[in-house]
Write a structure and sequence with these properties.
Layout: E1 3-5, H1 10-20, H2 22-26, H3 31-47, H4 62-66, E2 71-73, H5 83-86, E3 98-102, E4 105-106, E5 113-115, E6 121-124, H6 125-131, H7 133-139, H8 150-158, E7 163-167, E8 177-183, E9 189-191, E10 194-199, E11 204-213, E12 219-229, E13 234-242, E14 247-257, E15 262-271, E16 274-283, E17 289-298, E18 303-312, E19 318-327, E20 332-341, E21 349-358, E22 364-373, E23 379-387, H9 391-398, H10 404-420, H11 426-441
Parallel strand pairs: 2-9, 3-8, 7-10, 8-11, 9-12, 10-12, 11-13, 12-14, 13-15, 14-16, 15-17, 16-18, 17-19, 18-20, 19-21, 20-22, 21-23
Antiparallel strand pairs: 1-2, 3-4, 5-6, 6-7
Helix pairs in contact: 3-8, 6-7, 9-10, 10-11
């Protein structure tokens, strides 16, 4: 059976679903994956779904969201459509081959693994686990620890498919790889896809991930992505979240960086009813660099919660965090950023900043930047601001003939540009600039990319 009802109290029901559907869940997965599933479901039984008593989830009630009557996709549902007929991606023409996930499943069932130049691979994680077991087994569930986070354990127990990417030693993928996550069904659905990206020594790649909902029903997503970045490898990872207000998403993103590696990651949140983004970074060698940025534009009761854990485990590493938000119309948000500098991580440089603008009195943001330092030769800083548009700057613009509405838009765009300019894929940066401008003007609908206009 492909779908299973989620009926009552979350943890107990998910455990029951697992036991009743164990054959379907394990079907198509190799033994080494199913062994990890068994460990993961035990961990999930212990950890459960985090509630507001958990300090890291103090401002986001996930139990409420996971207690809805959504249906879980235990196998791909047969939904046939022509992508070009109903969907125009907000970030087109970044790569000649678009990778598409439909409700958490790799969509191109006829061609599950694509061989790119110089031995690089991209395709279905389920297929890769069977065809390239030595690669997947080496990295799967090694960075996203099932004993630390209940929803990671849950994803590991249930996940069947997602995207796998492998870039061999010394290989440079010139064009960005674009992955589009589409949610589309005539009934409410729950997806738990799993992604694994492996960049070996001296390799380079750019990944662009776009999240979209293309039909009216509500959806819930619990995704986990593991990324291994080898010595002297370079990764640019960009994500755009543009789902309708009935979509709820929890995303866990894990990076492990080896010596001299560089990762630039940014998340642009344009729409979504409830979004929780968890970013975990382990700087696992000297001279690593990580730049993690985010921009969120909330209104109409939307809720966005960003959590970042930056773990400096070795000396001479650099990390930068910059998150900015604009909240309007009783929207709510949270930012929790933690930087850990271990005892032996001398010469660390770590900088963290969260800045927010509240456009209305009923918008609300809770922010908590944190430094935890055990080394004594470091350069670290953190800070947060919450305020309104600068009245002096607004007066300056109006005094030069710019009307009040346009002056506010200019100030908001200038505020957001500090994050947009960190996007290092030129075509993506240009498109995001346009989308953010439309979003701030109220011209970007929550299903802007869908030609069906069902929402």
């Amino acid at each position: 059976m492909s779908l299973e009802d989620i009926k009552t109290e979350p943890k107990i029901k998910f455990l029951d679903i697992y036991q009743k559907n164990i054959d379907d869940i394990q079907n198509g997965s190799p033994d080494y994956i199913n062994k990890i599933r068994e460990e993961a479901i035990v961990a999930f039984e212990k950890l459960g779904i985090p509630d507001k008593k958990n300090e890291d989830y103090k401002y986001t009630d996930l139990n409420k969201e996971f207690n809805n009557g959504f249906k879980m996709y235990l196998s791909p549902k047969n939904i046939q459509f022509k992508v070009d007929d109903i969907f125009t991606c907000d970030v087109p023409d970044l790569n000649t081959k678009v990778i598409l996930l439909l409700n958490g499943w790799y969509y191109d069932r006829e061609n599950l693994i694509h061989e790119l130049p110089n031995g690089a691979l991209i395709g279905s994680l389920q297929a890769a686990a069977q065809k390239y077991p030595e690669l997947v087994k080496k990295h799967f569930a090694k960075y996203a620890k099932i004993d630390k986070e209940g929803l990671v354990a849950m994803n590991t127990a249930f996940a069947k498919d997602g995207v796998f990417m492998y870039v061999p030693k010394g290989v440079v993928i010139e064009k960005p790889i674009q992955i589009i996550n589409i949610l589309m069904d005539d009934e409410e659905g729950f997806t738990q896809h799993r992604n694994l990206f492996v960049l070996e020594e001296n390799s380079q790649a750019s990944i662009v991930v776009c999240d979209h909902t293309l039909s009216r029903p509500n959806f819930l997503t619990n995704s986990v992505t593991e990324v291994f970045v080898g010595e002297r490898a370079n990764l640019k990872y960009s994500r755009m979240q543009n789902e309708h207000n009935g979509s709820k998403q929890v995303s866990n993103l894990y990076f492990q960086q080896e010596k001299n590696s560089t990762v630039d990651t940014n998340t642009i949140t344009l729409h979504g009813g409830l979004i929780r983004n968890n970013v975990h970074v382990l700087l696992n060698g000297e001279f690593c660099e990580n730049n993690t940025t985010g921009l969120y534009l909330n209104d109409k009761g939307q809720h966005i919660d960003n959590y970042v854990f930056m773990d400096h485990a070795y000396p001479n590493c650099l990390s930068n965090q910059l998150f900015k938000g604009v909240l309007d119309d009783f929207a709510t948000g949270a930012f929790n950023g933690r930087v850990l500098v271990r005892k032996d991580a001398q010469k660390t440089q770590a900088f963290q900043s969260n800045n927010n603008i509240l456009l209305t009195d009923d918008a609300d943001i809770n922010t908590k930047p944190q430094l935890e330092i055990y080394a004594d030769d470091v350069k670290c800083s953190h800070g947060a601001t919450v305020g309104q548009l600068d009245e002096d700057a607004l007066f300056y613009l109006r005094a030069r003939g710019i009307d009040k509405k346009e002056a506010k838009l200019l100030l908001m765009y200038a505020f957001a540009h500090d994050v947009i300019k960190t996007i290092q894929v030129p075509a993506l940066q240009e498109r995001i600039q346009d989308l953010v401008d439309k979003r701030l003007r109220g011209e970007l609908s929550r299903c802007n990319s869908c030609q069906m206009h069902c929402c």
